[in-house]
Amino acid sequence: MNSIGLISMQYARPFAAEHFPLFARMKELGYDFVELLVPEPGEMDLTAARAALADAGLGVVLAARVNLQRNLSSEDAASHRAGIDYLKYAADCAAALGATVVGGPLTGNPLVFAGRAPQPVSETERLSRKQRCVAGLKEAGDHAAGLGVTLAIEPLNRFESDVLCTTQQAMELLQAVDHLAVRLMLDTFHMHMEEASISEAIRLAGSLLVHFQANENHRGFPGTGSTDWVDVCRALHDIDYRGPISLEPFRRNDDRFGVPFAQWRPPHEDESERLAASAAFIRSHISLTEFRR
Amino acid sequence: MNSIGLISMQYARPFAAEHFPLFARMKELGYDFVELLVPEPGEMDLTAARAALADAGLGVVLAARVNLQRNLSSEDAASHRAGIDYLKYAADCAAALGATVVGGPLTGNPLVFAGRAPQPVSETERLSRKQRCVAGLKEAGDHAAGLGVTLAIEPLNRFESDVLCTTQQAMELLQAVDHLAVRLMLDTFHMHMEEASISEAIRLAGSLLVHFQANENHRGFPGTGSTDWVDVCRALHDIDYRGPISLEPFRRNDDRFGVPFAQWRPPHEDESERLAASAAFIRSHISLTEFRR
To answer: Which SUPFAM superfamilies match (chains A, B) (predicted)?
Structure first.
């Protein structure tokens, strides 16, 4: 049975020591692990965090945060190097916290959140970006492997990344990286936008999938949108996926004109009932895939 | 029966006199109208274009292009004014071409394509943006009405606009504008990302809907993705929608690592067979809604 997790951003960003009591709350709501953003240096006492997680009986997965200054894809040597160093640092944080997976858009080149507009790319530059990602992931993968940590690259939608958007693109990259500590994570929010079929993409990923984010098409609570969750969970079952499944339902239901949906906002009311139902929703879907035939 | 159209960008951008022979090609492929981007001043001879459309027996709908310098939502008075003047200009172009609808993100505030990152907005500024959009749409609506043209506001996904993303938000704005020449258009590409249910959103729009874009979740050819077209077309039938339906399947099928999907690219092969099938796909779905009970 897969473990079910919740992103820390559901409650707060940045997530610091004052928020550690929320670990017990997550556990009560039915979550097995928390997905933490990789803390910036000095943002979180990792030893205290690990103890707080243990106290709450909660596991942990890490989500990497890239930007243009730490960017595997960058043609700027310093940014490329900082991108590699950041992944090593993220693996160190994982080891310190007891996490075995660091996922996220590790290939870099953030688009809308870095204030970049889509631009054409020459074939030479496209291939160079790939080469830089391959080299960087091999080096960071070696470091992660030594710590028992797996790096999981994540395709994002076309507006958040201009290098990696689909499972097929990720498979091409992983084949070139060819490293046991470099694997794949998928997020249904992005897949819903970019894949011809979410379930076919999951089957394509197969045994390379090590982390999964079950997000609704609009990033609200699962079951409140149009994702075909039965189809998604059957595909996970078909590839015998046993890894973590985390939820990030942090788009608040606020349809007033002019509220910017892509901008993260803290919760404005108690979401406990919906969060508990969301964990049960995904868990029950996964359970029932066993009995479909 | 709804008329079925194709966006000019499917072939070329900018679309100029040299491309007018494509009008006859579109007609042959099964399209009733072309959706043209509102030409910038001097970009297209409108009289010649109108004659070419008539020769081909093709109708026309216009798609407005906003930017930060012509932006109804802007707090900068000059940009706000330029936003209003642009909508009047677009209505003039429509009248010159024989179009009766100008659609698009008329409320402005482009995000990713203007290189803007999502930012928080104060409640005061949110309400000011709404007020500016209402005033601008009323003024431009008066001008359009005098020409027999309707302006259709379009909700975009969260990464393309930070003012108008859902049908509910649009309904709130239209209620405030309260103008017969200001109505709504919807695009399933954006709806797929932002709406809890595309068909419920169409039913919410009801009689205010004057233009519709039938785009696949990944902007490829309809029927090649995960949109539930039967559900979409039944909803259009239920609200008795008789207006135009246009297609914009301009994401080319190219899953090589590092190809930026949000960047428009020209066709790299003959797409005629798929374009003809796409027109027939939507037309047949619409036809069969009549016979579902």
So the answer is: Xylose isomerase-like
